[in-house]
Amino acid sequence: MELTQKGISQKDNWQAAGYDLPQFDIPSVTQKTLAAPEWIHFGAGNIFRAFQANVAQCLLNKGILHTGLIAAEGYDYEIIEKMYRPHDNLGILVTLKSDGSMEKTVVGSIVESLILDSQDEAEYGRLKEIFCAPSLKMASFTITEKGYSLVNGKGELLPDIASDYQAGPSAPKSYLGKVVSLVYERFQKGALPIALVSMDNCSHNGDKLYAAVNAFARAWEENGLISHGFLAYINDKSKVSFPWTMIDKITPRPDPAVKAALEKDHIDGLDPVITSKNTYVAPFVNAEECQYLIIEDAFPNGKLPLDQCGIIYTSRETVDKVEKMKVCTCLNPLHTALAIYGCLLGYTLIADEMKNPLLKKMVEMIGYREGLPVVVDPGILDPKQFIDEVVTKRIPNPFMPDTPQRIATDTSQKLPIRFGETIKAYKESSRLSLEDLHIIPLVFAGWLRYLMAVDDQGMPFEPSSDPLLETARSFVASYRLGSIPEDLSGLDPLLADSKIWGVDLIETGLADLVKDYFRQLGAGTGAVENTLQKYIGE
Protein backbone atom coordinates (compact mmCIF):
# COMPACT_ATOMS: atom_id res chain seq x y z
CA MET A 1 0.00 0.00 0.00
CA GLU A 2 1.15 3.49 -0.83
CA LEU A 3 0.56 6.64 1.23
CA THR A 4 -0.75 8.85 -1.58
CA GLN A 5 -4.18 10.02 -2.68
CA LYS A 6 -4.21 7.25 -5.28
CA GLY A 7 -2.97 4.72 -2.71
CA ILE A 8 -5.68 5.43 -0.11
CA SER A 9 -8.36 5.15 -2.78
CA GLN A 10 -7.87 1.38 -2.27
CA LYS A 11 -9.94 1.73 0.88
CA ASP A 12 -10.59 -1.95 1.52
CA ASN A 13 -6.90 -2.76 1.93
CA TRP A 14 -6.33 0.04 4.42
CA GLN A 15 -9.44 -0.67 6.43
CA ALA A 16 -8.66 -4.37 6.54
CA ALA A 17 -5.28 -3.46 8.09
CA GLY A 18 -7.05 -1.44 10.79
CA TYR A 19 -6.57 2.13 9.52
CA ASP A 20 -9.10 4.93 9.96
CA LEU A 21 -9.31 6.86 6.69
CA PRO A 22 -10.54 10.42 6.01
CA GLN A 23 -14.33 10.36 5.87
CA PHE A 24 -14.67 13.48 3.74
CA ASP A 25 -14.20 14.29 0.08
CA ILE A 26 -10.58 15.50 -0.06
CA PRO A 27 -10.81 17.05 -3.59
CA SER A 28 -13.93 18.99 -2.60
CA VAL A 29 -12.37 20.22 0.66
CA THR A 30 -9.19 21.16 -1.23
CA GLN A 31 -11.17 23.21 -3.74
CA LYS A 32 -13.04 25.07 -0.97
CA THR A 33 -9.78 25.72 0.91
CA LEU A 34 -8.03 27.14 -2.12
CA ALA A 35 -11.00 29.43 -2.77
CA ALA A 36 -11.58 30.58 0.82
CA PRO A 37 -8.84 29.50 3.27
CA GLU A 38 -9.66 29.73 6.99
CA TRP A 39 -6.66 28.25 8.80
CA ILE A 40 -2.95 28.33 8.00
CA HIS A 41 -0.34 26.83 10.29
CA PHE A 42 3.37 27.68 10.46
CA GLY A 43 5.65 24.89 11.65
CA ALA A 44 5.02 21.65 9.78
CA GLY A 45 6.68 19.34 12.31
CA ASN A 46 5.48 16.33 14.24
CA ILE A 47 3.37 17.99 16.94
CA PHE A 48 1.30 19.77 14.28
CA ARG A 49 0.84 16.59 12.26
CA ALA A 50 -0.14 14.59 15.34
CA PHE A 51 -2.41 17.13 17.00
CA GLN A 52 -3.78 20.12 15.11
CA ALA A 53 -4.05 18.26 11.80
CA ASN A 54 -5.95 15.43 13.47
CA VAL A 55 -8.33 17.88 15.18
CA ALA A 56 -9.05 19.40 11.76
CA GLN A 57 -9.68 15.90 10.41
CA CYS A 58 -12.11 15.19 13.24
CA LEU A 59 -14.07 18.36 12.33
CA LEU A 60 -14.04 17.52 8.62
CA ASN A 61 -15.18 13.96 9.34
CA LYS A 62 -18.12 15.32 11.33
CA GLY A 63 -19.05 17.77 8.57
CA ILE A 64 -18.58 20.70 10.98
CA LEU A 65 -15.64 22.17 9.05
CA HIS A 66 -15.64 22.47 5.27
CA THR A 67 -12.13 23.78 4.60
CA GLY A 68 -8.85 22.06 5.29
CA LEU A 69 -5.52 23.07 6.74
CA ILE A 70 -2.70 24.83 4.96
CA ALA A 71 0.74 23.95 6.30
CA ALA A 72 3.66 26.34 5.88
CA GLU A 73 7.27 25.73 6.87
CA GLY A 74 9.78 28.54 7.22
CA TYR A 75 12.76 26.87 8.87
CA ASP A 76 13.33 23.52 7.18
CA TYR A 77 11.98 23.52 3.64
CA GLU A 78 12.91 19.86 3.16
CA ILE A 79 10.03 18.78 5.42
CA ILE A 80 7.66 20.01 2.72
CA GLU A 81 9.76 18.93 -0.25
CA LYS A 82 10.71 15.46 0.95
CA MET A 83 7.82 14.41 3.17
CA TYR A 84 4.63 16.34 2.53
CA ARG A 85 4.53 16.55 -1.24
CA PRO A 86 5.69 13.01 -2.14
CA HIS A 87 2.79 11.76 -0.02
CA ASP A 88 0.18 14.26 -1.29
CA ASN A 89 0.24 15.96 2.15
CA LEU A 90 -1.07 12.77 3.80
CA GLY A 91 0.37 11.40 7.02
CA ILE A 92 -0.20 8.40 9.27
CA LEU A 93 -0.89 9.17 12.92
CA VAL A 94 -0.06 6.28 15.24
CA THR A 95 -1.55 6.86 18.68
CA LEU A 96 0.44 4.94 21.27
CA LYS A 97 -1.78 3.88 24.14
CA SER A 98 -0.65 3.15 27.67
CA ASP A 99 -2.05 -0.41 27.43
CA GLY A 100 0.45 -1.14 24.65
CA SER A 101 -2.02 -0.95 21.74
CA MET A 102 -1.89 1.36 18.70
CA GLU A 103 -4.52 3.34 16.85
CA LYS A 104 -3.69 4.03 13.19
CA THR A 105 -5.18 6.98 11.31
CA VAL A 106 -4.50 8.33 7.84
CA VAL A 107 -4.74 12.11 8.25
CA GLY A 108 -5.85 13.96 5.12
CA SER A 109 -6.85 17.37 6.53
CA ILE A 110 -3.73 19.14 5.21
CA VAL A 111 -4.72 20.03 1.68
CA GLU A 112 -1.91 22.44 0.78
CA SER A 113 1.74 22.70 1.87
CA LEU A 114 3.92 25.73 1.25
CA ILE A 115 7.47 26.90 1.78
CA LEU A 116 7.88 30.22 3.54
CA ASP A 117 10.62 31.59 1.30
CA SER A 118 10.49 35.21 0.18
CA GLN A 119 12.90 34.38 -2.66
CA ASP A 120 10.48 31.86 -4.15
CA GLU A 121 8.01 33.93 -6.12
CA ALA A 122 5.40 31.20 -6.61
CA GLU A 123 5.36 29.94 -3.02
CA TYR A 124 5.48 33.39 -1.46
CA GLY A 125 2.91 34.72 -3.89
CA ARG A 126 0.50 31.99 -2.83
CA LEU A 127 1.11 32.82 0.84
CA LYS A 128 0.31 36.46 0.11
CA GLU A 129 -2.94 35.38 -1.57
CA ILE A 130 -3.90 33.39 1.53
CA PHE A 131 -3.20 36.32 3.84
CA CYS A 132 -5.26 38.62 1.65
CA ALA A 133 -8.29 36.31 1.84
CA PRO A 134 -11.12 37.83 3.94
CA SER A 135 -12.05 34.26 4.96
CA LEU A 136 -8.77 33.65 6.85
CA LYS A 137 -9.57 33.36 10.56
CA MET A 138 -6.37 32.06 12.10
CA ALA A 139 -2.66 31.69 11.53
CA SER A 140 -1.28 29.32 14.14
CA PHE A 141 2.32 28.50 15.03
CA THR A 142 4.46 25.69 16.39
CA ILE A 143 7.92 27.09 15.69
CA THR A 144 9.42 26.37 19.19
CA GLU A 145 10.01 29.00 21.87
CA LYS A 146 13.35 29.84 20.28
CA GLY A 147 11.53 30.73 17.05
CA TYR A 148 10.17 33.95 18.61
CA SER A 149 13.61 35.25 19.62
CA LEU A 150 14.83 38.50 18.13
CA VAL A 151 18.11 38.71 20.06
CA ASN A 152 21.02 36.45 21.02
CA GLY A 153 22.19 35.64 24.56
CA LYS A 154 23.97 39.00 24.76
CA GLY A 155 20.81 40.92 23.91
CA GLU A 156 22.06 41.78 20.41
CA LEU A 157 19.68 41.63 17.44
CA LEU A 158 20.12 38.45 15.42
CA PRO A 159 21.75 39.25 12.04
CA ASP A 160 18.69 38.36 9.90
CA ILE A 161 16.40 40.33 12.22
CA ALA A 162 18.66 43.40 12.09
CA SER A 163 18.82 43.12 8.30
CA ASP A 164 15.03 42.83 8.02
CA TYR A 165 14.48 45.86 10.27
CA GLN A 166 16.49 47.95 7.81
CA ALA A 167 15.28 46.40 4.55
CA GLY A 168 11.54 46.31 5.22
CA PRO A 169 8.86 43.78 4.21
CA SER A 170 9.65 43.28 0.52
CA ALA A 171 12.08 40.32 0.82
CA PRO A 172 12.66 39.41 4.48
CA LYS A 173 15.23 36.80 5.49
CA SER A 174 14.10 35.85 9.00
CA TYR A 175 11.18 33.54 9.80
CA LEU A 176 9.41 36.22 11.81
CA GLY A 177 10.14 38.89 9.23
CA LYS A 178 8.44 36.79 6.57
CA VAL A 179 5.41 36.19 8.79
CA VAL A 180 5.06 39.89 9.61
CA SER A 181 5.40 40.82 5.94
CA LEU A 182 2.43 38.53 5.21
CA VAL A 183 0.42 40.19 7.98
CA TYR A 184 1.36 43.52 6.39
CA GLU A 185 -0.16 42.28 3.10
CA ARG A 186 -3.38 41.65 5.01
CA PHE A 187 -3.25 45.14 6.48
CA GLN A 188 -2.85 46.65 3.01
CA LYS A 189 -5.86 44.68 1.80
CA GLY A 190 -8.10 46.70 4.10
CA ALA A 191 -6.85 45.99 7.61
CA LEU A 192 -8.63 42.62 7.59
CA PRO A 193 -8.97 40.98 11.02
CA ILE A 194 -7.01 37.84 12.02
CA ALA A 195 -5.94 35.82 15.06
CA LEU A 196 -2.22 35.01 15.30
CA VAL A 197 -2.12 32.02 17.62
CA SER A 198 1.07 30.59 19.09
CA MET A 199 0.55 26.96 20.05
CA ASP A 200 4.08 26.44 21.27
CA ASN A 201 4.73 24.91 24.66
CA CYS A 202 5.93 28.01 26.49
CA SER A 203 4.45 30.34 29.07
CA HIS A 204 2.29 33.21 27.82
CA ASN A 205 3.13 32.24 24.25
CA GLY A 206 0.78 34.81 22.75
CA ASP A 207 2.79 37.61 24.36
CA LYS A 208 6.02 36.24 22.85
CA LEU A 209 4.48 36.27 19.36
CA TYR A 210 2.99 39.72 19.91
CA ALA A 211 6.33 41.13 21.10
CA ALA A 212 8.05 39.89 17.95
CA VAL A 213 5.35 41.10 15.51
CA ASN A 214 5.07 44.46 17.28
CA ALA A 215 8.86 44.96 17.21
CA PHE A 216 8.91 44.46 13.43
CA ALA A 217 5.95 46.77 12.87
CA ARG A 218 7.57 49.47 15.04
CA ALA A 219 10.97 49.17 13.32
CA TRP A 220 9.48 49.30 9.84
CA GLU A 221 7.22 52.22 10.67
CA GLU A 222 10.01 54.19 12.38
CA ASN A 223 12.29 53.55 9.40
CA GLY A 224 9.61 54.76 7.00
CA LEU A 225 9.46 51.44 5.17
CA ILE A 226 5.71 50.81 5.35
CA SER A 227 2.41 52.64 5.21
CA HIS A 228 1.47 54.48 8.38
CA GLY A 229 -1.07 52.65 10.50
CA PHE A 230 0.37 49.13 10.49
CA LEU A 231 1.65 49.42 14.07
CA ALA A 232 -1.77 50.64 15.22
CA TYR A 233 -3.38 47.71 13.35
CA ILE A 234 -1.17 45.22 15.19
CA ASN A 235 -2.17 46.82 18.48
CA ASP A 236 -5.90 46.94 17.74
CA LYS A 237 -7.39 43.85 19.42
CA SER A 238 -10.51 44.15 17.26
CA LYS A 239 -8.22 43.61 14.23
CA VAL A 240 -5.31 41.41 15.36
CA SER A 241 -5.29 39.15 18.40
CA PHE A 242 -2.54 37.12 20.03
CA PRO A 243 -4.34 34.56 22.20
CA TRP A 244 -2.55 32.66 24.94
CA THR A 245 -2.68 28.90 24.65
CA MET A 246 -1.61 25.88 26.69
CA ILE A 247 -0.66 22.80 24.72
CA ASP A 248 0.26 19.42 26.15
CA LYS A 249 1.00 16.35 24.07
CA ILE A 250 4.14 14.22 23.86
CA THR A 251 5.17 13.54 20.27
CA PRO A 252 8.53 11.77 20.13
CA ARG A 253 10.52 11.42 16.94
CA PRO A 254 9.36 8.60 14.63
CA ASP A 255 10.04 5.30 16.38
CA PRO A 256 11.67 2.37 14.52
CA ALA A 257 9.33 -0.07 16.33
CA VAL A 258 6.33 1.83 14.99
CA LYS A 259 7.82 1.81 11.50
CA ALA A 260 8.28 -1.98 11.75
CA ALA A 261 4.65 -2.41 12.83
CA LEU A 262 3.41 -0.36 9.85
CA GLU A 263 5.64 -2.27 7.44
CA LYS A 264 3.91 -5.47 8.56
CA ASP A 265 0.77 -3.87 7.12
CA HIS A 266 2.58 -3.77 3.74
CA ILE A 267 2.84 0.01 3.55
CA ASP A 268 5.65 1.12 1.26
CA GLY A 269 7.99 4.08 1.54
CA LEU A 270 8.05 4.54 5.32
CA ASP A 271 11.74 5.35 5.64
CA PRO A 272 12.36 8.50 7.66
CA VAL A 273 14.21 11.49 6.27
CA ILE A 274 16.90 13.32 8.22
CA THR A 275 17.09 16.75 6.62
CA SER A 276 20.21 18.83 6.20
CA LYS A 277 19.02 20.82 9.24
CA ASN A 278 18.84 17.56 11.21
CA THR A 279 15.06 17.41 11.37
CA TYR A 280 13.88 13.83 11.72
CA VAL A 281 10.62 13.24 9.83
CA ALA A 282 8.79 10.24 8.44
CA PRO A 283 5.49 9.55 6.62
CA PHE A 284 4.12 8.67 10.04
CA VAL A 285 4.09 10.36 13.44
CA ASN A 286 3.74 8.58 16.75
CA ALA A 287 2.25 10.27 19.77
CA GLU A 288 0.67 9.62 23.16
CA GLU A 289 -3.12 9.47 23.40
CA CYS A 290 -3.48 12.23 25.99
CA GLN A 291 -3.63 15.76 24.65
CA TYR A 292 -4.75 19.21 25.74
CA LEU A 293 -5.05 22.47 23.87
CA ILE A 294 -6.58 25.36 25.79
CA ILE A 295 -7.03 28.58 23.79
CA GLU A 296 -7.93 32.07 24.90
CA ASP A 297 -11.18 33.01 23.18
CA ALA A 298 -10.00 36.07 21.22
CA PHE A 299 -10.72 35.79 17.50
CA PRO A 300 -11.56 39.05 15.70
CA ASN A 301 -12.52 37.28 12.44
CA GLY A 302 -14.55 34.53 14.08
CA LYS A 303 -13.20 31.28 15.45
CA LEU A 304 -13.11 27.79 14.04
CA PRO A 305 -15.28 25.22 15.88
CA LEU A 306 -12.27 23.44 17.40
CA ASP A 307 -14.23 22.94 20.61
CA GLN A 308 -16.32 20.36 18.77
CA CYS A 309 -13.29 18.05 18.77
CA GLY A 310 -11.82 18.43 22.22
CA ILE A 311 -10.12 21.84 22.15
CA ILE A 312 -11.20 24.22 24.92
CA TYR A 313 -11.87 27.92 24.41
CA THR A 314 -11.71 29.96 27.59
CA SER A 315 -10.45 33.19 29.17
CA ARG A 316 -6.81 34.30 29.35
CA GLU A 317 -6.92 33.92 33.13
CA THR A 318 -8.04 30.31 32.84
CA VAL A 319 -5.32 29.49 30.28
CA ASP A 320 -2.84 30.84 32.82
CA LYS A 321 -4.29 28.71 35.62
CA VAL A 322 -4.15 25.54 33.52
CA GLU A 323 -0.56 26.23 32.57
CA LYS A 324 0.46 26.80 36.19
CA MET A 325 -1.39 23.64 37.22
CA LYS A 326 0.60 21.62 34.69
CA VAL A 327 4.01 23.26 35.06
CA CYS A 328 4.10 23.97 38.79
CA THR A 329 2.38 20.97 40.32
CA CYS A 330 0.65 18.30 38.28
CA LEU A 331 3.08 17.19 35.54
CA ASN A 332 6.44 18.89 35.13
CA PRO A 333 7.62 18.51 38.77
CA LEU A 334 6.92 14.78 38.58
CA HIS A 335 9.04 14.51 35.43
CA THR A 336 11.94 16.40 37.01
CA ALA A 337 11.88 14.23 40.15
CA LEU A 338 11.98 11.09 38.01
CA ALA A 339 14.77 12.56 35.87
CA ILE A 340 17.05 13.21 38.85
CA TYR A 341 16.48 9.91 40.60
CA GLY A 342 16.35 7.96 37.34
CA CYS A 343 19.90 9.11 36.51
CA LEU A 344 21.09 8.20 40.02
CA LEU A 345 19.53 4.74 39.85
CA GLY A 346 20.70 3.92 36.32
CA TYR A 347 17.39 4.10 34.44
CA THR A 348 17.34 4.99 30.75
CA LEU A 349 13.55 5.15 30.28
CA ILE A 350 11.10 7.22 32.30
CA ALA A 351 8.33 4.64 31.82
CA ASP A 352 10.49 1.96 33.46
CA GLU A 353 10.91 4.10 36.56
CA MET A 354 7.19 3.81 37.22
CA LYS A 355 7.69 0.05 37.68
CA ASN A 356 9.78 0.88 40.77
CA PRO A 357 7.29 1.15 43.68
CA LEU A 358 9.47 3.71 45.48
CA LEU A 359 9.74 6.07 42.49
CA LYS A 360 6.05 5.67 41.68
CA LYS A 361 5.14 6.52 45.25
CA MET A 362 7.56 9.46 45.24
CA VAL A 363 5.83 11.17 42.30
CA GLU A 364 2.41 10.39 43.76
CA MET A 365 3.44 12.08 47.02
CA ILE A 366 4.77 15.14 45.15
CA GLY A 367 1.59 15.41 43.08
CA TYR A 368 -1.20 14.46 45.46
CA ARG A 369 0.21 15.20 48.92
CA GLU A 370 2.45 18.24 48.41
CA GLY A 371 1.34 19.78 45.12
CA LEU A 372 -2.44 19.37 45.00
CA PRO A 373 -3.19 21.43 48.17
CA VAL A 374 -1.85 24.59 46.49
CA VAL A 375 -3.23 24.11 42.98
CA VAL A 376 -5.56 26.84 41.83
CA ASP A 377 -8.36 24.87 40.20
CA PRO A 378 -8.78 26.25 36.67
CA GLY A 379 -12.38 25.01 36.60
CA ILE A 380 -12.19 23.44 33.13
CA LEU A 381 -9.87 20.56 34.09
CA ASP A 382 -9.90 18.73 37.39
CA PRO A 383 -6.36 18.83 38.86
CA LYS A 384 -6.68 15.48 40.63
CA GLN A 385 -7.94 13.78 37.48
CA PHE A 386 -5.06 15.40 35.58
CA ILE A 387 -2.54 13.89 38.02
CA ASP A 388 -4.38 10.54 37.85
CA GLU A 389 -3.90 10.51 34.09
CA VAL A 390 -0.23 11.53 34.39
CA VAL A 391 0.55 8.81 36.93
CA THR A 392 -1.52 5.98 35.46
CA LYS A 393 -1.36 6.62 31.70
CA ARG A 394 1.17 9.19 30.58
CA ILE A 395 4.39 8.55 32.46
CA PRO A 396 4.08 4.71 32.50
CA ASN A 397 3.31 4.56 28.75
CA PRO A 398 5.80 1.98 27.43
CA PHE A 399 5.77 3.60 24.00
CA MET A 400 7.07 6.95 25.24
CA PRO A 401 10.84 6.85 24.67
CA ASP A 402 11.55 9.69 27.12
CA THR A 403 14.76 9.33 29.09
CA PRO A 404 15.63 10.74 32.50
CA GLN A 405 18.87 11.99 30.94
CA ARG A 406 16.96 14.16 28.43
CA ILE A 407 14.54 15.51 31.00
CA ALA A 408 17.45 16.28 33.38
CA THR A 409 18.69 18.87 30.86
CA ASP A 410 18.62 22.43 32.29
CA THR A 411 17.38 21.25 35.70
CA SER A 412 18.65 24.43 37.40
CA GLN A 413 16.27 26.42 35.17
CA LYS A 414 13.34 24.14 35.94
CA LEU A 415 13.55 23.86 39.74
CA PRO A 416 12.28 27.39 40.56
CA ILE A 417 9.05 27.14 38.55
CA ARG A 418 8.43 23.43 39.11
CA PHE A 419 8.97 23.42 42.87
CA GLY A 420 9.71 26.94 44.07
CA GLU A 421 6.18 28.16 43.31
CA THR A 422 4.75 25.40 45.52
CA ILE A 423 7.08 26.40 48.39
CA LYS A 424 6.00 30.04 47.99
CA ALA A 425 2.35 28.97 48.16
CA TYR A 426 2.99 27.03 51.37
CA LYS A 427 4.85 29.99 52.82
CA GLU A 428 1.96 32.34 52.07
CA SER A 429 -0.79 29.95 53.19
CA SER A 430 -2.56 30.28 56.51
CA ARG A 431 -3.62 26.61 56.47
CA LEU A 432 -0.41 24.94 55.27
CA SER A 433 3.05 24.73 56.82
CA LEU A 434 6.49 24.44 55.22
CA GLU A 435 7.13 21.70 57.75
CA ASP A 436 4.66 19.56 55.77
CA LEU A 437 7.04 19.49 52.80
CA HIS A 438 9.25 16.41 52.83
CA ILE A 439 9.47 15.06 49.29
CA ILE A 440 10.23 18.31 47.46
CA PRO A 441 13.29 18.84 49.73
CA LEU A 442 14.21 15.22 48.93
CA VAL A 443 14.16 16.12 45.21
CA PHE A 444 16.43 19.11 45.92
CA ALA A 445 18.82 16.89 47.86
CA GLY A 446 18.66 14.41 44.99
CA TRP A 447 19.84 17.12 42.61
CA LEU A 448 22.78 17.94 44.88
CA ARG A 449 23.63 14.23 44.91
CA TYR A 450 23.21 14.18 41.10
CA LEU A 451 25.76 16.99 40.83
CA MET A 452 28.38 14.60 42.22
CA ALA A 453 28.01 12.75 38.85
CA VAL A 454 28.26 9.31 40.46
CA ASP A 455 25.32 6.89 40.44
CA ASP A 456 24.05 4.77 43.31
CA GLN A 457 26.48 2.01 42.41
CA GLY A 458 29.43 4.38 42.58
CA MET A 459 29.81 4.57 38.79
CA PRO A 460 30.49 7.96 37.19
CA PHE A 461 27.99 9.37 34.67
CA GLU A 462 27.88 12.43 32.43
CA PRO A 463 25.41 15.01 33.80
CA SER A 464 23.02 16.51 31.25
CA SER A 465 23.76 19.98 29.92
CA ASP A 466 22.75 22.87 32.15
CA PRO A 467 23.85 26.53 32.07
CA LEU A 468 24.62 26.45 35.82
CA LEU A 469 26.11 22.95 35.90
CA GLU A 470 29.73 23.90 36.53
CA THR A 471 28.84 26.60 39.04
CA ALA A 472 26.55 24.27 41.01
CA ARG A 473 28.99 21.34 40.82
CA SER A 474 31.73 23.44 42.39
CA PHE A 475 29.78 23.34 45.68
CA VAL A 476 29.91 19.53 45.87
CA ALA A 477 33.30 19.04 44.21
CA SER A 478 35.08 18.24 47.49
CA TYR A 479 32.54 15.61 48.62
CA ARG A 480 33.07 11.91 48.02
CA LEU A 481 30.57 9.06 48.14
CA GLY A 482 30.71 7.49 51.57
CA SER A 483 32.36 10.46 53.27
CA ILE A 484 29.88 13.36 53.25
CA PRO A 485 30.88 15.54 56.23
CA GLU A 486 28.60 16.53 59.07
CA ASP A 487 29.32 20.20 58.43
CA LEU A 488 27.70 21.14 55.14
CA SER A 489 27.81 24.90 55.63
CA GLY A 490 29.77 25.10 52.37
CA LEU A 491 26.46 24.47 50.60
CA ASP A 492 24.80 27.52 52.15
CA PRO A 493 25.52 30.02 49.34
CA LEU A 494 24.00 27.56 46.84
CA LEU A 495 20.98 26.82 49.05
CA ALA A 496 20.37 30.53 49.54
CA ASP A 497 20.26 31.18 45.77
CA SER A 498 16.60 31.87 45.00
CA LYS A 499 17.35 31.93 41.23
CA ILE A 500 17.88 28.15 41.44
CA TRP A 501 15.25 27.08 43.97
CA GLY A 502 12.69 29.84 43.49
CA VAL A 503 13.17 30.73 47.16
CA ASP A 504 16.02 31.14 49.66
CA LEU A 505 16.05 27.69 51.26
CA ILE A 506 17.93 28.96 54.31
CA GLU A 507 15.39 31.71 54.89
CA THR A 508 12.48 29.25 54.53
CA GLY A 509 14.06 26.83 57.01
CA LEU A 510 14.21 23.97 54.48
CA ALA A 511 17.99 24.04 54.01
CA ASP A 512 18.78 21.84 57.03
CA LEU A 513 16.38 19.15 55.82
CA VAL A 514 17.92 19.26 52.32
CA LYS A 515 21.40 18.93 53.84
CA ASP A 516 20.29 16.01 56.02
CA TYR A 517 18.79 14.18 53.04
CA PHE A 518 21.90 14.90 50.94
CA ARG A 519 24.14 13.48 53.65
CA GLN A 520 22.08 10.29 53.67
CA LEU A 521 21.92 10.02 49.86
CA GLY A 522 25.72 10.23 49.73
CA ALA A 523 26.44 7.77 52.55
CA GLY A 524 27.83 5.16 50.12
CA THR A 525 26.75 2.79 47.36
CA GLY A 526 23.07 1.88 47.60
CA ALA A 527 22.40 4.93 49.77
CA VAL A 528 20.01 6.52 47.26
CA GLU A 529 17.74 3.49 47.27
CA ASN A 530 18.06 3.13 51.05
CA THR A 531 17.09 6.77 51.59
CA LEU A 532 14.08 6.47 49.31
CA GLN A 533 13.05 3.33 51.18
CA LYS A 534 13.41 5.13 54.50
CA TYR A 535 11.30 8.17 53.61
CA ILE A 536 8.96 6.89 50.94
CA GLY A 537 8.64 3.19 51.59
CA GLU A 538 7.02 3.62 54.97
List the helices and strands and how they pair.
Blueprint: H1 5-8, H2 11-16, E1 19-20, H3 26-35, E2 39-42, H4 46-61, E3 69-73, H5 78-84, E4 91-96, E5 102-107, E6 110-115, H6 121-131, E7 138-141, H7 159-167, H8 175-188, E8 194-198, H9 205-222, H10 230-234, E9 240-241, E10 245-248, H11 256-263, E11 273-274, E12 280-281, E13 284-288, E14 292-296, E15 312-314, H12 316-330, H13 332-344, H14 350-353, H15 357-371, H16 383-394, H17 404-407, H18 411-428, H19 439-451, H20 469-473, H21 492-495, H22 498-501, H23 505-508, H24 511-521, H25 527-536
Parallel strand pairs: 1-5, 2-3, 2-7, 3-6, 4-13, 7-8, 8-9, 14-15
Antiparallel strand pairs: 4-5, 10-14, 11-12
Describe the structure.
The protein is globular, with a radius of gyration of 25 Å. It is an alpha/beta fold and 538 residues long. The protein has 2 domains: 5-314, NAD(P)-binding Rossmann-like Domain (Rossmann fold), CATH 3.40.50.720; 318-536, N-(1-d-carboxylethyl)-l-norvaline Dehydrogenase, domain 2, CATH 1.10.1040.10. It is built from 25 helices and 15 strands. The N and C termini lie far apart (56 Å). The chain is 45% helix and 11% strand. It has helices at residues 5-8, 11-16, 26-35, 46-61, 78-84, 121-131, 159-167, 175-188, 205-222, 230-234, 256-263, 316-330, 332-344, 350-353, 357-371, 383-394, 404-407, 411-428, 439-451, 469-473, 492-495, 498-501, 505-508, 511-521, 527-536, and strands spanning 19-20, 39-42, 69-73, 91-96, 102-107, 110-115, 138-141, 194-198, 240-241, 245-248, 273-274, 280-281, 284-288, 292-296, 312-314. The strands form 4 sheets. It has a 6-stranded parallel sheet, with helices on both faces. A 4-stranded mixed sheet has the order 1-5-4-13. A 3-stranded mixed sheet has the order 10-14-15, covered by helices on one side. Helix 8 (175-188) packs across helix 9 (205-222) and helix 13 crosses helix 19 (439-451). Helix 4 links the parallel strand 2 (39-42) and strand 3 (69-73).
